[in-house]
Each structure stands twice: as C-alpha cells, then as structure tokens.
Design a protein that fits this description.
heterodimer; A: mainly alpha; Rna Polymerase Sigma Factor, Chain: A; Arc Repressor Mutant, subunit A; B: mainly alpha; 6 helices; 56% helix; 0% strand
Chain lengths: 194, 169
Amino acid sequence: MDGMRTDAELMELYRGGSRNAFEELFARHHRKVIHFCYRMTGDQARAEEAAQEVFMRIARAASTYQPTAKFTTWMYTIARRTTLNFLRDEKEHGEKIPIHATGEEGDPAEEYPLPGPEDWDPEQVVWGGELKEKFLEALQHLPEVNRVAFILNRGDGLSYEEVATVLGVTVQAVKSRIFRAREMLLAELSGLLQ
Amino acid sequence: MECKDIREIISAYVDGEASPEEIREVREHLGACAECRSAEQQMRALGVGVARVEGDVPPEFRDRLFARMEKEDLLPKRRSIFVFSVRWAAIPLAAAAALALYVMSSREIPREFSSPAVRPPQVAAPAGTLSPEDREIVANLEILEDPELFDEPPIDEMEIFVPSSRQRG
C-alpha cells in the first residue's frame, strides 16, 4: 500500500519507474513546497513557477538521492537552491527582489524597541489583510540566509538541526540567523504587533 | 545576564531549542524583566505569522507539472483507460469464451428430445406392433444371417475373373 510507505521507499519505487510513487510523493509535499516558495519569493506566480521547478529538479536528481537522508531535508535543500536561483535571476534582470549575500554584517534592528502589553497573546494576532501583506513584505527585506532559516524553522517546522543540514551550517549558526531574522522583522513590524 | 545577551537564547527558547540550563536562565530573566517578556511574546507572534503565510495551490498545478515531466521522460505515462480495460478484460473474456465452447460442445452428446415427433425409431418394438414393412425387414435379416438361403455357388465353384490386361506374363 503506497499510503503506508515512507518517502524514501517511494523514491526508490519512483527510481524503479513507478509513476504512482511520484504521485504519492507529490500529494504529500506539494503544498509545503508551494508555501515555502511563496514565503521565500513573496509572490504567488513566482512561487508556483519555483515550486514546479523544485519538483522537476527532484525528479531529475532522483538517482542521486540517498535513502539514508531524510527526504524532506533533501527536498528543502533543493527548494532553497531553486528559490535562490529564481531570486538571483530576477535580480539580474532588474526586478526589485532584495538579495543579501550573507546577512551577517550590519544590524538594522540593533537596540530595537519592544513595546506592547505584557499579557498580549501572540496567537490572537489577526494575521490577515494588511498585516499579512506587510509581514510578507518584511520577510522579503531579510537577507536570504536569515529568511530561509526562519521560514524553514517556523514556517515548515524543521528543527534547528534539520535547518542546519539544509543550509550546510552549524546549529549555532542557525540559532543566530533565526534570532537576527526576528530582530529585523520586529524592527519593521513592531508597531503592528500590538 | 543582560537583556541584549539573553535575547538570542529567548529566541531559541521560543522555538523549543534551548537547553535545560538555558531554559532555567530564560525563565529566571523573564520573571524579572518586563521588556524581555514583551520581546518573547512578539517573537512568538512572528513565528505564528510566518506559518500563516501560505501560497495558493492552483488546480492546474499538478497537471501542468506532470505534463512537463512526461515531456522530459521523467514520469512514466499513464496508460489510456481503453488499453487498460482491454488488458484486464482479457481474463474474464477468455473465461466466458471457454465456458460458451464447453456448453456448445457438450450439447452434441446427450441430445435431449423433448417432442415425441422427433424421437428416434424404436429398435426393439414388441412383435404385435410391427408394421408390414417392419416384418419384411425382419424377414430379410434372417436371410442375411443364413448364407444357405442365398442362391450363390459354394466358394470352390466360383469362377475367378482375371482382368485381360494382366493375363499376359
């Protein structure tokens, strides 16, 4: 039964020529990939295009997949590289996509203020309309290394260790990148998060 | 520990990635620092926010992708319903044909006669019911059984006729 198979088993079956195996993998993960691409690019059309490319690359690289690696980690590694290429290509073509190479230098959110009542409930923030739009925009202002770490952890639920594997960095680096992403986002959105 | 030094640990704490020792430090600090408590709440809100940002999945997304993959031979094409159905219908069709053949051939052996009009003639009918023709046939049968009744000469008196073409040599 395909529904009971692991992602790694489905990849093996797909490599053996099973269409059903790929369809099952697609059914399991396509939403995650589209959401990831949308958070990374901030644009629906580009997210769709990037997500298509992610699956094409997964299919093309199926022979290189090692079943010892977690499929989702491998998938997000491809998704990250794909969106990064998309954003770089668009930047080269003059579109307004901010790309910051490392994000490690400079800190626009140094000593940011943190107003707000102490009993404020973060779960109750209405993430719709203008706030959602501004949030998506603020995400795009982050350096890519900080944005991707924060999105993978909070958006896609990967642990710091998994994020570290996807990005090829240490867990400490992930911890630092996510913190800096938060600092910068709060500097831009703190007025709205009250 | 000062606020600026503990904020990164608070961020990890919010993500559930702080060590037990860090958790203890953070809780101790938050208990005494209103500013960091507020920061912690806002950090949590950002996490909720990014999870709520979701792209749409267009209905044609799957078909478009699979068409691209098929074009590049990255996905085995699905067989058409017709080919599939013929393939899988072959077994019941063959079984039905075999059954029909059996039924038709087995009818040739024990033929049932439902109407008296088509019954085969009775071989051993009671004597009282024989017609004149039947009696004649029975009489001739007696002649066949007794060669003496034939007007033919004994076998040693029979002439042998040899065809003229074989009489020479």
